[in-house]
Design brief:
The protein has 123 residues and is mainly beta. It is built from no helices and 13 strands. It has strands spanning 3-7, 10-12, 18-25, 33-39, 46-51, 58-60, 68-73, 78-83, 92-99, 101-103, 106-108, 112-113, 117-121. The strands form three sheets. Strands 2, 4, 5, 6, 9, 12 and 13 form a seven-stranded mixed sheet that branches. It has a four-stranded antiparallel sheet with strand order 1-3-8-7, with no helix packed on it. The chain is globular and about 40 Å long. The termini are far apart. The relative contact order is 0.32. The model has no long low-confidence stretch (mean pLDDT 95).
Length: 123
């Protein structure tokens, strides 16, 4: 069974850091364009970052560029989202998703979603 599981969310003060982990079972992450999305209360889900199947291409939303880094650990079948200099507006539920390709910072034709992990940035 194909499954994605996120972890690493939590509560952090502004300026702090978190690293989110997206682990896959039932398929290899190298076969997919993995995207991170987020959804804040009362807002639509938005793409944050995407890494291509080969790992050679990474893209970021303007709102997180320079602060977030997406990366892949092939032996662990895991994708990470390192989030630095966090701001209150980064507060959201973060999801990873396996799609067929990246369109900029958005994973497209998503076939699998994780359950989400809450990130709260507040003083």
């Amino acid at each position: 069974q194909l499954q994605l599981v996120e972890s690493g969310g939590g509560f952090v003060q502004p300026g702090g850091s978190l690293r989110l982990t997206c682990s896959a079972s039932g398929f290899t992450l190298n076969s997919a364009a993995i995207g991170w999305f987020r959804q804040a209360p009362g807002k639509e889900r938005e793409g944050v970052s995407c890494i291509s199947g080969s790992g050679g291409s990474t893209n970021y939303a303007d709102s997180v560029k320079g602060r977030f880094t997406i990366s892949r650990d092939t032996p662990k079948n895991t994708v990470y989202l390192q989030m630095n200099s966090l701001k209150p507006e980064d507060t959201a539920v973060y999801y990873c998703a396996a799609g067929y390709y990246c369109s900029g910072h958005v994973s497209k034709a998503v076939r699998n979603w994780g359950q989400g992990t809450q990130v709260t940035v507040s003083s």
